[in-house]
Amino acid sequence: MRVHLDSEKCQGHNRCYALAPELFDVDDYGQAVLLVDGDVPDELQAKARLAASNCPEYAIKITENG
Amino acid sequence: MTDIVDKTTTAPAPQPGYVPPTFGEGPEDTHIWQRVPYNAADYGPVTDFATDFDHADPNYNRNAPEVWKELRDGGCPVAHSDRYGGMWIPITHDAVNEVAYDTENFTSRAVVVSVGRPGDLALPAPIGGAPPITSDPPFHNMARRLLLPAFAPKMIEPWEPEIKLLCNRLLDEIGEITPGETIIDAAVQYAQNIPVNVIGRMLGFPAQDEELFRKFVHDVIERITEEPGTREGMDDLGNYIMAQIQDHRDNPRDDLTSYLMNVEIEGFPVTDEIAGGMIILLLIAGIDTTWSAIGSSLWHLAQHPEDHRRLLDDPEVMTFALEEFLRAYAPVTMARMVAKDVDFHGCPMKKDDWVLLPFPAANRDPLKFEGPDDFIVDREENRHAAFGLGIHRCLGSNLARLELKVAIEEFIKRFPSFELAGDTRWSVGQIRGPRELPIRILEVAN
Q1: Domain count, chain B
Q2: Which of helix, strand or coil describes residue B179?
Q3: Which of A2-16, B96-110, B174-188, B261-275 bottoms out in mean pLDDT, i.e. has the lowest?
Q4: In this predicted structure, what is the pLDDT of residue B82?
């Protein structure tokens, strides 16, 4: 599984940071920063889905490795 | 290019030493406010929200979820009203989202629908009277970036112990309680005192002025059908902020007001007018909004002991419950003005018409939320729009969330059981929440 963050769409709601701090940080302006590069570890996949499904701006996308 | 963008090249144009009045009368034939042709008395109570919408109707905030449902079920995605000089009200999530994102056709120059539109003396778009909430691109982002760092999660988190202390002090001040008998007003004795204290401290304003801040909020947000010139609080607010700015210039200290005295936009110091506008935003926007969210959440818990119990038994569920309170009881409806004539899905919107943006209605759109009128304490998928959508996402959302979370947690810990004890009085206008909330305390924690 891969997680993608569209920084143009992010408006700093900080929901991802609250739900999945292992995957997302926030910068000094409250904008989301993706912490993983590449595959999401198995134990964090549920959190990645949770972050994606709570972003009000649809800025986070999940793709499954196929 | 558009009108909005053209104006950015000429504004701001502050003359040295010239500080135009923030509110009130200017030189003859010039106006901060332009009165719209609307007298509430000529209209009376609303009988059809689809064609005569009025968010100041005394029954609106009490019954808002039913109003939105009726409009949706009646196939009305955008309601209209002749009140306030003409107003449109998109109800669906898609329509609200579309307006929020379309900063070209919809300006944020005025965000509180009232009988007064900004006049020729008011700061023009893209700045507006209280930047960045009243600003459009590109100025919006410059002003917003000045304030964002102060409200980023890592700057707000350290306030948690302070807010906890405040909530417990307020609970202590309620005094002696006889379980099963004592009725408290959870809005007046508790909710309304929390955000005003925190933002007052962040701005470095005297604690004894809290009552005054609530009056300013009432004047700006609730007295929307009164002549702006007669709302004396509008002048008082401008004068108060200018006095605070002067005091902070004379006695700089470590607070947001002093910070704004020393910042620059594009290499130029911000004028007192712009800094004052930002302070007005911080003061007004953070008070009745969060107070309403706290009150509505307690109103819900007073009627749903099962949710109350779940939060006590499983405190971790607060992560989801907090967002569900925000979704189901979102307090804030924003507004825009139509920047130029536009056809919006068949609605002939005219320049200077108002557009309400009821994010709380978007949060109950069945196309976006399963069981939108059900409160699901552990709802896992929740893309609610309580803090808005697009570039104007609530600047203080992290602070608001923290205040709401701590306020609920401390209240339910202190009072493990309580119920409604009479009529709730709801606010009037764009901010929805209880203003009087009688609650009978059934149990007090040892």
Answers
A1: 1
A2: coil
A3: B261-275
A4: 96
Residue A18 near chain B (CB below 8 Å):
yes
The answer to whether the Cβ–Cβ distance between A54 and B383 falls below 8 Å is yes
Give every CB contact of residue B309 below 8 A, 6+ residues apart in sequence: none
pTM of the model: 0.92
The first and second tokens of residue B324, run together, are 């569900």
Instruction: Provide the shortest C-alpha distance from residue A50 to chain B (in Å).
Output: 7
pLDDT for B228 equals 62
Which of B102, B74, B139, B60 has its CA nearest to residue B336? B102
CA B206 to mean position of chain CA atoms: 22
- Measured between CA atoms, the residue of chain B closest to residue A31 is B152
Assess contact for B194 and B403: CB atoms under 8 A. Answer: yes
Other beta carbons within 10 angstroms of residue B149's beta carbon come to 14
CB B303 within 8 A of CB B439: no
Structure tokens at B233: 């609080």
Residues 314-343 of B with CB under 8 A from A: 319, 323
pLDDT: which is higher, B12 or B216: B216
pLDDT of B190 higher than 60: yes
- Domain range for B240: 3-443
Listing DSSP states for B4-60 in one string gives: HHHHHTT---PPTT----SSSB-STT-BSEEE-S--HHHH-S-S-TTTS--TTSTTH
Instruction: Give the burial class of B17: count Cβ atoms within 10 A of its Cβ; 0-12 exposed, 13-18 middle, 19 or more buried.
Output: exposed
Strand B116-118 to strand B425-426: parallel, antiparallel, or no bridges (unpaired)? unpaired
Within 10 angstroms of residue B155's Cβ, the number of other Cβ atoms is 16
Q: What is the pLDDT of residues B142-156, one digit of tens each?
A: 999 999 999 999 999
B153–A30 CB contact, under 8 Å: yes
Asked if B367 and B92 touch (Cβ cutoff 8 Å), the reply is yes
The alpha-carbon gap from A16 to the nearest alpha carbon of chain B, in Å, equals 11
Per-residue model confidence (pLDDT) at position B6: 32
Which tokens hold the place of A31? 């904008």
Least CA distance to A55: which residue of chain B? Answer: B383
Q: How many CB atoms lie within 10 A of CB B227?
A: 13
Instruction: Find the DSSP H helices in B204-304.
Output: 210-217, 232-250, 256-261, 272-285, 288-303
| B35-44, B161-170, B361-370: least confident range | B35-44
CATH number of the domain to which B22 belongs? 1.10.630.10
What is A2-63's CATH number? 3.30.70.20
Quick one: closest CA in B to A18, which residue? B319
Q: What is the pLDDT of residues B162-176, one digit of tens each?
A: 999 999 999 999 999
How high is the pLDDT of residue B26? Answer: 47
Q: Which helix (H) or strand (E) holds B95?
A: helix B93-101
Of A18, A28, A55, the CB nearest to B383: A55
Q: How far apart are CA B277 and CA B182, in angstroms?
A: 43
